[in-house]
């Protein structure tokens, strides 16, 4: 696992630790090292699987979620490298000044931001997306490392929106604006770039333009669509319930209005029948009276 790291270094000429794979402690750690190599960059390292998983971040990590920092995946480093600071002599791989910019502990989490085991974190990293919470002095809170589609080397380091996030422009170190004195290579052995940057700024722009953090965006879109569907369902049910209630109320009102009309019609019929009956009786009495009246003849 450290074969590539050791192949690139001559430990009799560099103060860097040779190191070896070792078991992690109770809490996983991280470190960010400011490295004044051929190109100024920040080395972001996470303790995982007995080594330091490492990325070279040209602009350094940011606390602004709007910043999508290009992170070039490099060879694993030994855990002993977590405390390394000093100057790598000219002529050596990565020659230049190294200092610890920030360090602390971290917790790997899943998509629901629940803590996961070291084994699960390693699996997430292999799949190309690792979420974690940092507890450092300069950077803290939730972050995600996302591998660009079809590119094993180039990743993006992105800050999550949380109480630690900032919407202001984030500069890791004021010295970055002023530049620094580069280490000079020995004439007989030119310096090699610490980390290859085949795409450089173009890769970063391309990554942002292509749509950053595709997996997270898809998941968010899916959740949003599900939420909208649920809301529509609830609103539809509420509307149907309201319509049903309105219909029932209308029927009751119509029934109430219809009852007096029916009662009035029945009453009129009864009155008409009674009047006919009374008229009939009156007519029969008059006839009887005429028949019983004596004749004057």
From TrEMBL:
Keyword Ligase found: yes
Key word Ligase present: yes
Bias-annotated ranges (Basic residues): 1-11, 269-288
Keyword terms: Ligase
Composition bias, Basic and acidic residues: 167-207
Molecular-function annotations in GO: ligase activity
Any coiled-coil regions, as ranges: none
Low complexity: compositionally biased ranges: 241-253
InterPro entries reported in the protein's UniProt record: LigD_PE_domain
Region of interest: Disordered: 1-24, 167-210, 240-297
Domain named DNA ligase D 3'-phosphoesterase: residues: 33-147
PANTHER family, per the entry: DNA LIGASE D 3'-PHOSPHOESTERASE DOMAIN-CONTAINING PROTEIN (PTHR39465:SF1), DNA LIGASE D, 3'-PHOSPHOESTERASE DOMAIN (PTHR39465)
Protein name according to UniProt: DNA polymerase ligase N-terminal domain-containing protein
Organism: Candidatus Pseudobacter hemicellulosilyticus
